[in-house]
Amino acid sequence: MQHRYQIIQPGWTITVNSGFEVLRDFAVVLEDNRIQTLIANDAVTELPCYEQAEIIRLPNCALMPGLVNSHTHASMGLFRGIADDLPLMEWLTAHIWPAETRWVDAQFTADGFMLAAAEMMRSGTTCLNDMYYFPDTAARCAQAIGMRSVIGLIVLDFPSVWARDADEYLHKALAAHDEIRELPLVSSAFAPHAPYTVSDESLRLVAMYSSELDVPVHMHVHETAAEVAEAQQKTGLRPLERLDQLNLLNSNLIAVHMTELDEFEIERIAEAGVSVAHCPESNLKLGSGICPVATLLERGVNLCLGTDGAASNNDLDLLGEMRTAALLAKGSSGNASACNARQSIEMATINGARALGLADRIGSIEAGKYADLIAIDLSGLNTQPVYDPVAQIVYAAASRQVSHVWIDGVIQLRDFEFCRLDSDEIVARAASWAQKIRS
Amino acid sequence: MQHRYQIIQPGWTITVNSGFEVLRDFAVVLEDNRIQTLIANDAVTELPCYEQAEIIRLPNCALMPGLVNSHTHASMGLFRGIADDLPLMEWLTAHIWPAETRWVDAQFTADGFMLAAAEMMRSGTTCLNDMYYFPDTAARCAQAIGMRSVIGLIVLDFPSVWARDADEYLHKALAAHDEIRELPLVSSAFAPHAPYTVSDESLRLVAMYSSELDVPVHMHVHETAAEVAEAQQKTGLRPLERLDQLNLLNSNLIAVHMTELDEFEIERIAEAGVSVAHCPESNLKLGSGICPVATLLERGVNLCLGTDGAASNNDLDLLGEMRTAALLAKGSSGNASACNARQSIEMATINGARALGLADRIGSIEAGKYADLIAIDLSGLNTQPVYDPVAQIVYAAASRQVSHVWIDGVIQLRDFEFCRLDSDEIVARAASWAQKIRS
How do residues B309-356 score in pLDDT, each as one tens digit? Predict the structure, then answer.
């Protein structure tokens, strides 16, 4: 079989390898869907593949690993802006849950997933970790458009558009898991919604399946102080304590939000290898609380970043989320050195990959990894001059400056334009849903 | 004299009038540099000026008042990214002040001002409130490129590239004020840097001149808890108390940052009509503290928004700042209804105009006001679907979606492209400064 070679020559290569090397005037060579090598520009013509390779020169751009959105509800993009300026429980119970009951089906999930995936791709996200209804549909969409995805197998105790009861959720989860195993770009995670919506019995089964199949568990945990207080009142236990008893505190767990943590809990999750998916903009917008990022980074907890759904953010811009995470960690800890620009990029790339069990495949620019890459054009007014491309990306760049996106070696965005997606059609479908929902 | 007419027909008109009316399918009619009238689209052809007018149809766009950046140090854009992840005093004394001493002159100020003004214009800011050295140079630049500006007449006690001592600062301030009075787009404000860098004697003179000339006073106040504590130790007074004794607490004062406020102070500034320029991203990034926005809004304090300089933000994107302000007010108060989308837009428009003494001229779309307007294209993936254009602008839109900008009736940005500014030249000048500074 003929191999396909692409040679990308950016101004800067932000490798996000273990030494966080930033290379000036290097070439990144792709063979098919993988990174073959990194080589100085002045040696690139000596490569055996040089003659057959496509050469992509990006002197104004920084190349970095594609962003990993570690927590989202992609299809909720169709509800973006239906209810704002409200606290979490009122937003959920008075607006989101009723709208979901009325509108969500497989077609809604598909159209919403496409809108979200396109928005994410356009803004530099190359892998998303989703939690929503109709995971089988979402998985097929992801594979069809070439978006690397981890699809959450939703588990709840109450009936929804997707399943009637805990048994049916679990049954459908295992069926979807089997189907998803056949999709090369997609993998699955168990997604019990939250401690307050899933019973001990279901959680025990999730823990067992997760361990047997070595699949991550993706769950909202300690999103607000009220959640923790109510659980204590009802069960005598804080939710994390309960999850610990149910064998869920381990390196398979991606605990989302985690705004409410005491000293003991921080030690426990650090020791257990739990990943924390921090969603700063959603937490701020819903007044949910603030995750103690500075402390978690100090303790070596694997912190990754998510946008949450577009109904509570309201964009899916992980570059913006990196910046908010860095600023909020400094502001909330009173320490301007907390969560520096490099740590913020690690959270959005290699740490996300690690949480999803994909760190050997994506999350950094290193030979052998899959080519999930993005180029950010720093020539705009707002990113000039360039003293430090890393600071520029985190503190000044806008996601519209993402000029090129590769996922699994396939170029999805070139010179700011989609190569494969039809964004007009995606927007038209979203607008037609909005017309129905509004009326 | 022949009048010039422009008729803008946006999808939505966000007037920011006192009732915060959002009009669907209305036309905004400009006569020369002013808004002549607002009229329903289906009646627009009956206007006497219709035949001679330029018609600008923007069905995918929301039209709103241009943004007012109430606190910036425009020329510091040339230092963007030289020192990040550091606390305020270390950042100032070890990095910024030495760099300023070494590099700042009239040419630096001019080139930096152009970079910043272009970045702001591109992202929807039509009026800026500046504080920096060489205010005469900045004022001439602003007038030359057509950027409405309030230029701070800097006052310090210590020598700098601009003046040797307090006397010379004040002398130069008054001279610059006289020069600026001749520039139609520019006005001036006294800009004593901060309570800890300006003596009682100078502040008394500033208060007197401000009152005599009816000119705003633009000053960093209570930026950090440490500033307040040190002042108490040295003088026995909190800085606001001292400013009160010096007759500075009145409606001419734009107090910037204000992260550290007690109950008594909040009441006092509300009663005195002091405006607060909130700079959430700078405050977070430098770990300075968090302005109590939710409380200040409740008490009716005139809150406006600033980006601060690009060396501490690191962009000059007021649309992003609106979003951060809304999210941070909710997150820090624990109240998701605090600082809603409308209040956030008011802070960035009419409240800024009020702080600068320009509320009768700009800050809303109302007949008779100057035509400082921006159009935001909501057709992008990240702002679809549109249930509520106001929420969409604050919580989802990116500044790159600003498609058109008018300042004083002059179109400065059309279909995302500058009409008058040469941004390549501006970027080239910035890059050449960076080369010198880096070496």
Answer: 998 899 999 999 999 999 999 999 999 999 999 999 999 999 999 999
Round to whole Å and give the CA distance between A350 and A366: 11
Q: Give the separation between CA B319 and CA B378, rounded to whole angstroms.
A: 14
Q: State which amino acid sits at residue B2.
A: Q
Q: DSSP code of A47?
A: S
Is residue A151 located within the same domain as residue A287?
A: yes
Which tens digit of pLDDT belongs to each residue from A231-271? 999 999 999 999 999 999 999 999 999 999 999 999 999 99
A62 φ, ψ (degrees, to nearest 5): -100, 130
The answer to whether B220 and B193 are in contact (CB under 8 A) is yes
For residues A240 and A244, give the distance between their C-alpha atoms in angstroms, rounded to a whole number.
Answer: 6
pTM for the whole thing?
A: 0.97
B183 touches chain A (CB under 8 A): no
B335 reaches A (C-beta below 8 A): yes
Query: Do B218 and B258 share a domain, yes or no?
Result: yes
DSSP A19: T
**Owning domain of residue B11:** 5-65+370-418
Q: Are residues A60 and A162 in the same domain?
A: no
Q: How many CA atoms lie within 13 A of B269 on its CB side?
A: 31
* Tens-digit pLDDT profile for residues B42-77: 999 999 999 999 999 999 999 999 999 999 999 999
Domain count, chain B: 2
Alpha carbon of A191: minimum distance to chain B alpha carbons (Å): 26
A382 and B84 within 8 Å at the Cβ level: the answer is: no
Residues B339 and B414 both lie in one domain: no
The answer to whether residues B81 and A395 touch, using CB atoms and an 8 Å cutoff, is yes
Q: Which residue has the higher pLDDT, B211 or B87?
A: B211
* Residues A310, A397 within the same domain: no
CB-neighbour burial class of residue B47 (10 A; exposed 0-12, middle 13-18, buried 19+)? middle
Burial class of residue B164, CB neighbours in 10 A (0-12, 13-18, 19+): exposed
CB A85 to CB B341 under 8 A?
Answer: yes
Q: Do B36 and B147 lie in a common domain?
A: no
Q: Could you tell me if A314 and A286 are in contact, meaning their C-beta atoms sit under 8 angstroms apart?
A: no
Per-residue pLDDT at B438: 86
Confidence band for A1, pLDDT divided at 50, 70 and 90: confident
Cβ atoms within 10 Å of A213's Cβ, excluding its own: 14
Phi, psi angle pair for B412, to nearest 5°: -105, -30
Give CA–CA dist B169/B156, Å, rounded: 7
pLDDT the model gives residue B176? 98
DSSP annotation string for A224-270: SHHHHHHHHHHHSS-HHHHHHHTT--STTEEEEE-----HHHHHHHH
3-class DSSP assignment, residue A338: coil
How far is the C-alpha of A140 from the C-alpha of A142, rounded, in Å?
A: 5
CA distance B225 to chain A (A): 10
Q: A344 — phi, psi (to 5°)?
A: -65, -40
